[in-house]
Amino acid sequence: MIRLDSEEKEILEAFESGNLKRAKSAVDEKKTHQAIADATFRKDARISIRLSSKDLRALQARALQEGIPCQTLVSSVLHKFVDGRLVDKSAKK
């Protein structure tokens, strides 16, 4: 007879009693993560804002440096701000 350690015994007991649950397949897990990502990045609202010409030009220049559209940059900055992930690098520590 094979000797089982306590963890193996626990697993065997759970299996024999029918208390084990099937693990999600990689495909199911990928679908779940994809649905979460889709919901996170869904753009379903529109806003209009007024900016100074200077700020708009600065935003457009920064977007060009980053290689992304200006609206994508603004959306990303706002998203990071509301998530609390926008870091002010110029602030003294």
From TrEMBL:
It comes from the Bacteria. This is Putative DNA binding CopG/RHH family protein. The lineage of its organism: Bacteria, Pseudomonadati, Pseudomonadota, Gammaproteobacteria, Chromatiales.
